[in-house]
């Protein structure tokens, strides 16, 4: 309620002159177009901020699209990796089966070869034993015959055996 005080409007009151100066200052500022200038600067600043917001929104949309694309590529890569892993496991199983079959076949061949060699060795051993037995029997027979011949007595069994040998050789 200071405006109703008569002392305020006294020309010697410095507060009156401060108020008048302030009103003149505001009038000059309005006449000079400072509010329009300030409004223009603020509008330019608002337009710049709006363009930056629009650019940020555009960049965000691009980033979201890129993120979606990367997620899709990741899912595709994971699916492809899973397929490759499954194919590799299938291939490994197939190769394992083939290798097992080849190994069993090889073992069967080696077993047959070993059995043949054993049979050959047995046959050879049997032949060697028979040959040794025949040779031993021949030596024993020779020593018996030599002992009888040295005695000078005729042996009817020996004479019959010699006669049979002559018949069989012809």
Please give a structural write-up.
- The protein is built from three helices and no strands.
- The protein has 170 residues and is an all-alpha fold.
Averaged pLDDT, please? 87
Which consecutive residue ranges, at least 5 long each, have pLDDT under 50?
none
Q: What is the strand tally?
A: 0
Give the CA-based shape.
Answer: rod-shaped
The helix tally amounts to: 3
Give the percentage of residues in beta strands.
under 5%
Structural class: mainly alpha
> What value does the Rg take, in angstroms?
65 Å
Give the topology, please.
Layout: H1 14-32, H2 34-151, H3 156-169
Fill in the keyword field for this structure:
170 residues, mainly alpha
Short synopsis of the structure:
The protein has about 170 residues and is an all-alpha fold.
């Amino acid at each position: 309620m200071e405006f109703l005080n008569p002392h305020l409007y006294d020309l010697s009151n410095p507060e009156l002159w401060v108020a008048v100066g302030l009103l003149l200052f505001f009038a000059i500022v309005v006449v000079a177009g400072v509010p329009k200038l300030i409004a223009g600067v603020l509008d330019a600043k608002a337009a710049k901020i709006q363009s930056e917001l629009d650019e940020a929104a555009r960049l965000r949309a691009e980033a979201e699209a890129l993120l979606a694309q990367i997620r899709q590529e990741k899912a595709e890569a994971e699916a492809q990796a899973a397929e490759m892993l499954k194919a590799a496991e299938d291939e490994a199983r197939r190769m394992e089966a083939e290798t097992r079959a080849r190994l069993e076949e090889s073992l069967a061949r080696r077993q047959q070869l070993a059995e043949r060699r054993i049979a050959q060795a047995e046959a050879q051993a049997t032949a060697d034993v028979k040959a040794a037995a025949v040779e031993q029997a021949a030596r024993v027979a020779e020593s018996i015959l030599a002992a009888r011949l040295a005695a000078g007595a005729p042996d009817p069994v020996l004479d019959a055996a010699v006669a049979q040998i002559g018949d069989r050789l012809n």
